[in-house]
Write a structure and sequence with these properties.
5-stranded mixed β-sheet; Peptidase_S13; Beta-lactamase; alpha+beta; carboxypeptidase; 12 helices; hydrolase; protease; EC 3.4.16.4; 504 residues; globular
C-alpha cells in the first residue's frame, strides 16, 4: 500500500470535507494561550482516505506513547497476528532411569513479552494469577519428562538480542521504574518487581515485601528516616544478588512501587530454579547467563537441534501481545516486539537495525515524513519526533490491512478500558473512540479512530508539547477536540476513491 497525498484527488477531498467542523476546530486551536504549548492536529476521512483537516500537521513534536502505533503496526505487518513465541528448555540428553539429567538444563529465551502470569484475553484491566505460574508449568513438564536431579544446574540463554544499553533519551529515573526496564530476549513478569514497604521508627528497618523474589535473589536494606525526610526506593544488582535500597519517612503511610529488574534474564533463571525445587527437582548450584555482545550476529535457530526438548511454553498470539502494548502502554513489550520484527526480517535483533527496518517500512509505504525520527519503539525517548500527519497516515494504512481489525481492537476504548477507561465517558456525539494515549512531562498526545453513530469514520492525531499548565486541562481540551470532530454533521457517504490502500 502506498500513500497518495490528498491533493491528488480534489473531488474526493471536497466530498469528504463537506460539513466538517473546520471553523470550530481552527477557532479553538487558534485561541490557545502560550501556557498550553504547541498543538498539532490531523484528521482523515477513512471512507475516502482523504485528509479533511490539519493544524500544524507537519510540525515535528514529541509523540510519547503514540509512537507505539508505528511499532505495533510494523510488527503485525511483518509477523502476522497469529505468531507465537516458544520459551523452551533443553537437555543434552534425556534423564536416566534414576531421574538424573547429565549436563545443565538450558532455558532459551524466545522474546516472549508475556512470560508472566498475565490473564488473557485482556479485558478492561490487567489481571494476574500466581506470579510463578509460567515456570511452574515448565517445571511440571520437566517432572513429567522424568527429571528429578540436575547436578549441573541451569543455563539461561539470553542471546536472542544483543545486551545493549537502554535507548538514548531515557532518563536515569526512567531506568529505575518499571517502564524503563532493560530489554532482553528472556524476561519474566514484565521485567518488574512489586514492592510494598511501610516505615517503622526512625533508624529502624522498614517492613518490606518484594514479589517476585525467587530463591532469595533480592535482599532488602530499606530504613526508616525521621519525619518529614525524603522517601526513595531503588533496586540494584550487587554480585550474584540484588539489593533493594531506600528510605521511608517515619509517619507516612505504606508505599507501593513497581521497579525495574536490573537484569531480567537472571530473574528468569532464578524463577526457574525456584519452581524446580518446589516441584521436588534438585538443582545444582551453578547458574550461568549467556549474553550476546552488540555487533555480533543473531544466534542460529538450529543451535539446539542436537539436544532434547524437555519442556516448552507457548505464548498467547501476537495480536494479544499487541493488545497489552496498546491498552496499558507497556514499554518493554513494545521494545521486545520491535526486535522480534527485526529478527523476522533477517535482522540481528539490535535496536539500531530494528529502528532502521521500521524506518524503511514506513518510507516504502509513504507513511513517514522527513521530520520523523524514532530513538526507541515505545515513545519514552525525549529525542523522538513525529508529525500528526505521519501518525494519521499510519492509522489510515492499518485500517485497510488484513490485520487492521485486530490492531484497531488493541487500542483503548474510551470510557471502557486501558489508558482511556476514565476519559470521554460522556461524549455528546455518542461516538466510539479507540485511541492510543501518550504522556510525558509537558507532553499529552492522542491518536486513533472515531466511529460516528451514522457509521462515518475518521482517523485522527492530536499532539500537544511544551505546555506549562496541568495535564488534566490539556487532556480535557484534547477530548473536547475529539468530540468536535465526532459531532460533525451527518452527510451522504462519498463514493469509493482509490487514494491509497492498493495492495503492493
Amino acid at each position: 500500500m502506498v500513500w497518495v497525498p490528498p491533493a491528488s484527488n480534489p473531488s474526493a477531498l471536497a466530498m469528504a470535507s463537506r460539513g466538517f467542523p473546520k471553523t470550530e476546530l481552527s477557532d479553538f486551536l487558534g485561541n490557545r494561550p502560550a501556557s498550553e504549548g504547541a498543538w498539532a492536529v490531523s484528521v482523515m476521512d477513512l471512507a475516502s482516505r482523504q485528509t479533511v483537516y490539519e493544524f500544524q500537521g507537519q510540525a515535528p513534536l514529541l509523540p510519547a506513547s503514540t509512537a507505539k502505533l508505528l511499532t505495533t503496526a510494523f510488527v503485525l505487518d511483518v509477523l502476522g497476528p497469529d505468531a507465537v513465541f516458544r520459551t523452551q528448555i533443553y537437555g543434552q540428553m534425556r534423564p536416566g532411569v534414576d531421574g538424573i539429567l547429565r549436563g545443565p538444563l538450558t532455558l532459551v529465551g524466545a522474546g516472549d513479552p508475556n512470560l508472566s502470569s498475565r490473564v488473557f484475553p485482556y479485558e478492561q484491566t490487567t489481571e494476574r494469577g500466581t506470579l510463578s505460574e509460567p515456570f511452574d508449568q515448565l517445571a511440571a513438564q520437566l517432572w513429567q519428562s522424568g527429571v528429578r536431579v540436575v547436578p549441573d544446574g541451569i543455563v539461561a540463554d539470553a542471546l536472542r538480542y544483543p545486551q545493549e544499553p537502554r535507548p538514548a533519551g531515557w532518563t536515569e529515573d526512567d531506568k529505575r521504574r518499571w517502564y524503563g526496564a532493560p530489554v532482553r530476549g528472556l524476561s519474566f513478569n514484565d521485567s518488574l518487581v512489586f514492592v510494598n514497604a511501610r516505615p517503622t521508627r526512625p533508624g529502624r528497618p522498614a517492613v518490606v515485601s518484594v514479589q517476585p523474589n525467587p530463591a532469595g535473589l533480592i535482599r532488602t536494606a530499606v530504613t526508616t528516616g525521621r519525619r518529614g525526610s525524603g522517601s526513595w526506593l531503588n533496586l540494584e544488582a550487587e554480585g550474584d544478588h540484588w539489593v533493594l535500597k531506600g528510605q521511608l519517612a517515619a509517619g507516612r503511610g505504606a508505599v507501593f512501587r513497581m521497579l525495574a529488574q536490573p537484569e531480567p534474564a537472571q530473574m528468569a533463571a532464578m524463577a526457574l530454579r525456584d519452581a524446580l525445587e518446589r516441584h521436588g527437582i534438585l538443582v545444582g548450584s551453578s547458574t550461568r547467563i549467556l549474553f550476546r555482545q552488540p555487533g555480533t550476529p543473531a544466534p542460529v535457530a538450529t543451535r539446539y537441534n542436537d539436544q532434547v526438548l524437555l519442556a516448552e511454553r507457548v505464548s498467547p498470539r501476537l495480536a494479544d501481545a499487541v493488545t497489552v502494548v496498546n491498552k496499558v502502554s507497556q514499554n518493554q513489550h513494545a521494545e521486545m516486539l520491535l526486535r522480534e520484527a527485526s529478527l523476522g526480517m533477517g535482522g540481528d535483533g539490535s535496536l539500531e537495525m530494528a529502528s532502521t527496518q521500521l524506518h524503511h517500512w514506513l518510507e516504502k509505504r509513504g507513511l513517514s515524513t522527513p521530520e520523523c525520527f524514532m530513538d526507541d519503539a515505545c515513545g519514552l525517548s525525549r529525542n523522538n519526533r513525529l508529525t500528526a500527519t505521519a501518525l494519521t497516515r499510519v492509522l489510515g494504512y492499518a485500517a485497510n490491512t488484513p490485520w487492521g481489525k485486530a490492531w484497531r481492537q488493541s487500542l483503548p476504548l474510551a470510557g471502557n478500558d486501558g489508558t482511556l477507561r476514565h476519559r470521554m465517558q460522556g461524549l455528546t456525539s455518542g461516538a466510539e473512540v479507540r485511541a492510543k494515549t501518550g504522556t510525558l512531562n509537558g507532553v499529552q498526545t492522542l491518536a486513533g479512530f472515531i466511529r460516528k453513530p451514522d457509521g462515518r469514520e475518521y482517523a485522527f492525531s492530536i499532539l500537544v508539547n511544551d505546555f506549562r499548565t496541568s495535564d488534566l486541562l490539556i487532556r480535557q481540551h484534547i477530548d473536547h477536540l475529539v468530540d468536535l470532530i465526532a459531532g460533525s454533521p451527518v452527510l451522504p457517504q462519498p463514493g469509493e476513491f482509490a487514494s491509497f490502500g492498493e495492495a503492493e
